[in-house]
Amino acid sequence: MGQRQYQQKVYLETFEKIRKIIQERNLQPGDRLPSERELTDLLHVGRSSVREALRAMELLGLIETRRGEGTFIVDFRKHQLVELLSSFVFQRENADHDILEVKRIIETSGIYKLVFNRTYIDISQWNEKYFDREKFFERILILTDNQLLLKIWYILSEFIRLLQFTNPIEKKYYIELLTAINSGNWDQALSIYMLYFDQAKPIQ
Predict the structure, then answer these.
(1) 8 Å CB contact between 164 and 96
(2) Contact 22, 51 (CB under 8 A)
(3) Domain residue spans in the chain?
(4) Residues in domain HTH gntR-type (predicted)?
(5) How many CB atoms lie within 10 A of CB 64?
(6) CA torsion angle for 119, 121, 122, 124 (degrees, to 10)?
(7) CATH of domain 3-80
(8) Cα 41 from Cα 103, distance rounded (Å)
(9) 50/39 Cα distance (integer angstroms)
């Protein structure tokens, strides 16, 4: 098993063990979770694995941390979408590939909408921080003005950030993609995306 697969295995197992503690103790919204140190001792795993699992749960809206008080269960029913996605990801083997494919669909849909809406992006004003893959597509999806797509993308992006290592992308490819969008050239934009931005392809 490679390093990436091993880290993912430990992380997912830790997440599932914490879920089991919640179920076995019948913890309800408003109830306090054991502390990070207590969970480390209970689960016999490294503190970093516990920290990452708790971070993922918080990002999913399943728990919340209150400064000086601890970590508490929140009402899952308020987060049906994230609960559905989290259940899928953490119960299905190799779900990260499925998530990457859905993320690809959302990102290419965002590009498609900008192309066919004739959205013009002033590349000269494009902030340097957006020449980072996730910040780049966050900006692209914000420009589509589709809040549902953006919300789902945020959730998937956080999963992949925790589970996936990515190769850096040269700035020139961001420029090429933005230029294709401004030119209204969907075929070219899709081709550039698939060549340089597609995370569902095996990492070389």
Answers:
(1) yes
(2) no
(3) 3-80, 94-196
(4) 8-76
(5) 14
(6) -160
(7) 1.10.10.10
(8) 36
(9) 7
Exposed/middle/buried for residue 66 (C-beta within 10 Å: 0-12, 13-18, 19+): exposed
The pTM of this model reads 0.62
Residue spans of alpha helices (H) in the chain: 3-24, 36-43, 47-59, 80-91, 95-116, 133-144, 147-163, 171-182, 186-196
Cα separation, 128 vs 34, whole angstroms = 42
On whether the CB atoms of residues 89 and 11 are closer than 8 A, the answer is: no
Residue listed under structure tokens 């494009």: 126
